[in-house]
Amino acid sequence: MVEEADLKQWRDAGHVARRTLEGIKDEIQEGKTWLEVIDSAERFIRRHGGQAAFPVTISVNEIAAHFTPSHQDLAPEGWDAPMTFQKGDLVKLDVGVHIKGALADNALTVEVGNQNKHTEQIKAAREARDAAIEKMHPGTPWHEIGQAAEQVTKDAGFNPIRNLCGHELERWNLHSGTSIPSYACGPNSGFKGKAQTGSIYAIEPFNTTGKTGMIENISPAGSSNILRVTGDVSIRKALSKGKLKPLGATMARYIEERYHTLPFASRWAYPLLEKPFPTEDAESLQKKWKAMIKKLTAIRFLEVYEALRDVDGGNVGQFEHTVIVTEGGPEVLTVL
Questions:
Q1: What are the tens digits of pLDDT across the range 137-180?
Q2: What is the enclosing helix (H) or strand (E) of 202?
Q3: Annotated catalytic residue: which of 62, 89, 94, 306?
Q4: Which one of the listed residues 204, 306, 310, 321 is annotated catalytic?
Q5: Low-confidence ranges of the chain (pLDDT < 50)
Q6: Is 105 a catalytic residue?
Q7: 145-180 burial by CB neighbour count: b if 16+ within 10 A, else e?
Q8: Residue 320 bears catalytic tag
């Protein structure tokens, strides 16, 4: 539960997150690269007084979520085209902002070139988000919120994605435990509990043209190029027990000090490795990077994320707001 005295930082984070989406969406144009838009969005966040709560992600067509380019700017497995926007692409832009750990998470979907190929799907995704938010009153069971989102999605002729959920946010914790369905899961599902006064949630229904409404991981492990410090491992203890060498411990400290337990991009952290090895060539540095990440993951200091795609190859749409539940109902924090 967020206290009233803390709400200013959450509202400020929401304001910056929304300004970033609105300020960057028109840069998603034919011929621009995914990384150009992502870099622009991350600079926008910093210029406007925030920090990225996670790497800005671009997910195109059947890619549903969680992709940001690596420090090598390689395409996800199975993506054979250049990572540049093409006319008719259905693009999800997902932006998170934090101010001293107070978080805001929002997303939108656009079509490159306004070809009107995806107009109805984009509209349905936005309206499903808004229908779910309207239900975010104290005590509303999660299954009713999921039902509201699915109704809009199905009425528009699309399927809800059933294995991607909204989530609760707490300071420094982007996914704090509670998951919020975006489909009609029913009262006897695993989504127990109700919307709680004073709690903050990211509401993000995904829809798809795919038949099954399911997403899958893109191989290999870590395909999103996003990592996170788990917070479960003491660097000092790992060093004293011989699980880390001094250089690995130093790198782990650098990462923890910069990103805490929020997700970060490999392209953000990779330059940290260049400092102790200024004369190494790119191939050697890459080998050291892979070895370091493998080690830090093996001891559970880090966890890695996979990029996600529709199992049927369907096009995926998404809209998202961050909302606090008040006694009077939902207050959207990701507003201008």
A1: 999 999 999 999 999 999 999 999 999 999 999 999 999 889 99
A2: strand 200-203
A3: 94
A4: 204
A5: none
A6: yes
A7: bbbbbbbbbbeeebbbbbebbbbbbbebbbbeebeb
A8: yes
Per-residue confidence (pLDDT) for residue 275, from 0 to 100 = 83
Q: Which fold has domain 226-304?
A: Arc Repressor Mutant, subunit A (1.10.10)
What is the identity of the amino acid at 214?
M
Q: What's the token pair of residue 2? A: 């967020």
The predicted structure's pLDDT at residue 203: 98
Q: Spell out the domain ranges in the chain.
A: 4-215+310-332, 226-304
CATH of domain 4-215+310-332: 3.90.230.10
Sequence-distant (≥ 6) Cβ neighbours of residue 196 within 8 angstroms: 1, 138, 325
Distance, CA of 130 to CA of 125 (rounded, Å): 9
Which one of the listed residues 12, 105, 127, 306 is annotated catalytic? 105
Residue 5's pLDDT is 72
Q: What are φ and ψ of residue 63, in 5° steps? A: -70, 125
Residues in the chain: 336
Is the Cα torsion angle 244, 250, 252, 253 positive or negative in sign? Answer: positive
Helices (H), the chain: 7-24, 34-47, 119-134, 142-155, 235-240, 246-259, 266-274, 282-298
**Is 327 among the residues known to form the active site?**
no
Sequence-distant (6+) residues with CB within 8 A of 258 are: 264, 268, 269
Residue-level pLDDT at 115: 87
Please tell me the distance from the alpha carbon of residue 308 to that of residue 226, in angstroms, as a whole number: 12
Catalytic residue among 39, 48, 130, 175: 175
Instruction: Point out the catalytic residue in the list 36, 167, 168, 321.
Output: 167
Active-site residue flag, 204: yes
